[in-house]
UniProtKB/TrEMBL annotation:
Entry's localization field: Membrane
MF-aspect GO terms: cytosine transmembrane transporter activity
Primary subcellular site in the record, as a coarse category: membrane
Protein known as: Cytosine permease
Source species, domain of life: Bacteria
GO CC annotations on file: plasma membrane
Membrane topology summary: Multi-pass membrane protein
Amino acid sequence: MATSSVDDYSLSRVPASARVSWFAIATQRLGQLSALSSFVVAATLGFSMPFWDAMLAITIGAVILEVVCIFTGVIGQREGLNTSLLSRWTGFGHAGSALIGLAIGVSLIGWFGIQSAVSASGLHAIMPWLPEWTWGLLFGFLITAIVSLGFHGMQWVANIAVPLFLILVGWAVITELQRHDIGELVTQPAPGPPLSLLAGASIIAGSFIVGALISPDMTRYNRSTADVVKQTVVSITVGEYLVGLSGVLLAHAVKTADVSAILLSSVGWVGVLVIVLGTFKINDWNLYSSGLGVVNFIDTVFGRRVNRAVVTIAIGLVGSVLAAFGILGYFTDFLIVLGVAFPPIVGIMIAEYFVVKNWRRDLDESREAGVLPARAPRWVPVSIGIWIVSALVGYFVTWGLGSLNAVITAFVLYVVLGKLGWIRGYGSAATEQAITAPRSADRALS
């Protein structure tokens, strides 16, 4: 199977000819961070924290995210591999990567459907001549069509949607804040029940931890390590502070954490466009990474290579239909619990790649030839145990940042047990190499 532009090297390395500028990827990352869900998080902090405490919590959370995203992003950039495929040689083995691919696929397609339903509600508010479920289908189908075109198709959309979103949200925020005294908003106590600084930072860091895990899906298109650092620092800093400042001030002004209500009551249909655009650029990445995870799962479990675009269309259609009829709303709690499983994966991948290096030589040698390592361990049982233990720590330990506790626990356990020689692969699985010769359609966007 030749790797085409729409397949996006789902089971192979991204060649140098397909890499893009750091600013292009920063635009896509900024789209992820300036989403409606980020506004909800910022408004939650603003409703329950004084302004400067909320901004300090955002700063702590942003720094944690930048560090974690840089490490995982550098791995993806160096190897040119997406997260699900990369996990075969970063601590989980061939079969373990199938579990990761399935978890990512199920989680992100769930959130894709739920956020499509949110946008459908907003569209129905200003265009009630179509029922809400119809808007849900149309919105989901539109994103599915764009994501099926691949990374470069998503890039063109980001170049339009992200600046438009920032302009509209800036206008909406200014319109609302003109009715209030900014100095009073900055100094007044939180309008809602108090939230500690530690809890606030935890909310910020935890809200994007899945984004840190799937960073390689994006950074495999970066040209250098320096590009990863620039793209990550700029996008996360601008995104978190822009959205954070706006969300906190709006919550203080209107004295509610319901951002949708704030925007709709302040600027009407423009607020709906903000909601739709704010969902759009994170939802396309939900579907994109979900598709990559499912492709890896099918390849690992069934030994069949399927085209990423075909998989994307299939799961996008299913997710859109389930969301339109409200079915996915019943699974929100399940998706939140499933999210606990992701932080330990980040810790294990970083520990294996940068410290323990059991399979680093295989990656280094094959990278020179532009192919995958010939073989991967079938199972790494100790890693699965570390994964489970660390997830439980993140979920049940109430002190500190839950997601960060899980990442650190997984990292420390993996390094200690790895240095003791306990991290071993059992069995071996051959890797079928995809054809990676670049075509004219794969030319990088500058």
